[in-house]
Amino acid sequence: MSTAVAAPEVKPAEGLFSKKNRKLITDPLNDNNPITVQVLGICSALAITVKVQNAVVMSLSVLAVVVVGNMVISALRNLIPGRIRIIAQLVIAAGLVTLVDIVLKAYVYDVSKQVGVYVGLIITNCILMGRYEAFAMGNKVWPSALDGLGNSLGYAWILLAVGVVREVTGNGSVMGVRLIPESWYAVNGGAYFNNNMMILPPMALVLVGIIIWVQRSRNTKLIEQ
Amino acid sequence: MAFDKNSNSFTFIFATVLVVVVGSLLAVTFLALKPAYDENVRREKMQNILASMKVKVERDAAPEKYKELVGEAFLLDAQGMRVEAGNNDPVTGVAFALDVLKQYKDWKAGVVKAEDMHFPVYTATIDGKQLYVLPVVGTGLWGPIWGYLSVEADGRTIYGATFDHKGETPGLGAEIATPFFYEQFPGKTITGDDGSYAGIHVYKGGSQTTDPHGVDGISGGTITSQGVDEMLMRLLATYDLYLKSTIAPPTAEVITTVPDALLADTLAIDSSITSQSVQP
After folding, report:
1. Which three-class secondary structure state does DSSP give residue A151?
2. pLDDT tens digits for A74-100?
3. Among A159, A192, A161, which Cα is nearest to A178's?
4. How far off is chain B from A27, nearest CA to CA, in Å?
5. Averaged over B245-249, what is the pLDDT?
6. pLDDT band for position B248 (50/70/90)?
7. Angle, nearest 10°, between helix axes A52-76 and A126-134?
8. What ipTM did this prediction achieve?
C-alpha cells in the first residue's frame, strides 16, 4: 500500500474546469448518455414523462441524489471497506432518496403524489449505483460531483424532451400552460383531439427509441460494429 | 495507515456509524418537515370533501372554503346512530380527526370489531342546499381506495362524488379518480322508491342508463370497480340508517311499520321531483 501512495502524484494543480473535468459534464449529455447510450434508468423515464413538471421534479431529484451521493462516497472512498462497499453505497443512496422524498412531500405535495413511487425507486435506478461504483469510488470529490452533474443532466434532457412531446401531444399544454386553445377541441366545436395514446407509457419507449435513432444517425461512433 | 480498513472490526464499526448517521439524519429531517406534510394531508382532505360537493378549489385555498361551507362534522356508530360525544367542529372535531383508512385496515386485520367502528358525516350548506358528505374507504387492486359522496337533503340522492386511490393502475383502475367515472354519480339514489336500501352498484359491462342505483365500471379495471362497488354497498348501508332517521325520525322504537310507510311516501314524491330536475 505504501508504494502506491508514494507514486508520483505531484502533478500541477488541475483547474476546476480543465478540459478533462469539462468532459465529465459534456460526455454524458451525448456520447455516453445514461439513457440513450447506456440504456439505464429507463423505468422512471417511461413512467413519469406524461407531464413536463413531473419530469423536472424527477430530474432534480435524481440530480440531487447522484451529485450529493457521488460527493459523499468519493469523500469516504478511502474509508469504505471493500467487502461492504455496495451495501454502504446503497445505504447512502437510500438515505438521500428518502430525504428527497420527505422534502417533496412537505413542499411540493401534488407533484410528490404524481411521482411518489418513482422517487422511492430512484434507489434502484442503475444510474446511481453505476456512478457510485464506477466513478465516485475511484475519484476525488470535485470530479465526482461533476460526473454526477453530467450524468443527471444527460438523464434530465432526455426526460424533458420526452415530457414536452408527450404533454403537448397528449394534453395540449406544457408545464400546465395551454398551447392548444380550448376552442379547437371537439367538445367546444373544434376538430382537435388530444392523442390519448401519448400519455400511455409505451409511447415514452417509442420516443426514447426515436431519440436513440436520431442520435446514432448523427453520431456514428455510437454504432456498434 | 494506522488501521486496516478491511479488518472485521473496522467493517463493523464503519457499518454501524454509517447507519446511525444516515438514520439520525433522516429522523431529524422527518420530524422537522412533518408539520408541513401533515398540513398538506389535512388540506387535501378538505379539498376532497369540497370536491365531492362539486366545489373545486386549490389545495391552499381549501381550508378557507371548507370553513365557510362545512357546518359540522360528527360520528355515527355502526348502527347509524349519531354519537353525541365530543367536539363537532368540522376542523378540530373528532370526526375530521378520525383516520377512516386506518380504522378500515384495523377492521380488516381484526383489531377493531365492526360494531366498534365509527363513521364520520360532514354537513354542509351550499347555495342554500343542505348536503351530507360521507367518506367511504375500501380496497382496490393494489391498495386502498377511498372517496367522498355528498347526499342531498332528501337523504337518498347523490349530489356529487370524488374518488382517489393509493396506487391503482394508471389508465385502468386509476380512472376512478377521473371525471368520466365520478360524474356518473350525481342524481343516483341510494334507496329505492319504497325506501328500501339499494346502494350504488358498479357494473362491469355498463349499467342500464335508467338504473338509479348503478354506474358503469371501468374497462380493464374490473378489480378496482369491484372494490368501489363493495366499498359503496358496505358503507352506504350504514349511512342509509342514519339518513333515513334524520329525514323521518322514528317517533317510538316500538312502531316501525308506520314511519317506514310514511317515509316511503315522502321519498316517492321527492324522487319524482328530483328525477325531473336532475335528468333533463
Report:
1. helix
2. 999 999 998 899 999 999 999 999 999
3. A192
4. 32
5. 67
6. low
7. 20
8. 0.75
| Candidates B11, B19, B36; nearest CB to A83 | B11
- Our CA-based measurement puts residue A105 at a distance from the nearest CA of chain B, in whole angstroms, of 6
Interface test with B, best of A43, A73, A84 (most B CBs within 10 A): A84
pTM score = 0.72
- What percentage of chain B has pLDDT greater than the value 90? 38
Q: Considering only alpha carbons, which residue of chain B is nearest residue A77?
A: B5
Cα→Cα distances A173→A51, A112, A163, A164, A181, Å: 9, 20, 11, 9, 9
Pairing of strands B119-126, B129-139: antiparallel
Residue in chain A closest to B38 (alpha carbons) equals A106
- pLDDT tens column, A48-64: 888 888 888 889 999 99
- pLDDT band per the 50, 70, 90 thresholds, residue A135: very high
- The C-alpha cell of B226 is what? 369491484
